[in-house]
Design brief:
Elements lengths: L8 H18 L4 H4 L3 H11 L4 H32 L2 H29 L4 H4 L19 H16 L3 H20 L5 H20 L1 H12 L21
Helix pairs in contact: 1-9, 4-5, 4-7, 4-8, 5-7, 5-9, 7-8, 7-9, 8-9
Length: 240
Amino acid sequence: MQIKVALNGRQSGLLWIAAFFCVLALNPSQQVYAQAPKWDVSIFRSINNSRSPFLNSVVGGNDYAMIPIAFGTPFVVAGIGLADRNANTFDTGMMIGVSEALAYVLYYPIKNFVVKRERPYAALSGVHVMHMDTADKYSMPSGHTTAAFAIATALTLRYPKPYVYIPAYAWAAFVGYGRVYLGLHYPSDVLAGAILGSASAIAIHFLSPELISLRKKILGNDLGIHLAACPSALGLSVSF
């Protein structure tokens, strides 16, 4: 006997989100991840010791650009959609932003309350370290990588074309590589960030019908703003 269960978008998205917290609940011991294993340190050393002025410049520049890109991308894409009255483009910006927001909501407690792994430059000797100003106290998962893969996956799910996902994931992977090169993360930190960011975008993709429905209630099908649809708008109706 076969049992088939069909999940709608909301149920699938909530299932992905719940899975993260189930993993945390089933593995409360931070000691599993608090110390980087030997293979992790070995790969870290290989990347971190491969120094060159060119990589210093390119990796460093990309690393500093990551935070403005992470904050700016959803607003820029959504703004273009709003200006052009292009609902698909606006929704893409919305999905990117919500994916990043969910990734952060999951990333912050995992990093600061569950794992609490020391950064490589704090745990190891002889580390080549740069951009310490972009690093907080703990290491796993990599926040930069989480955001980069949330953006790349959200874009890929909206536009599943090689000319979108190849450069998007190449850039996200380079962000992760850079965090190891700069001495700020172990490879496993980057891998964890890639999984977290990608999974967050997938969860939001499953929830996209509900999010788009909410957008239509507020902005309308043609992206004209209808404040009367918002309960807090006190019955006002304004359209552009």
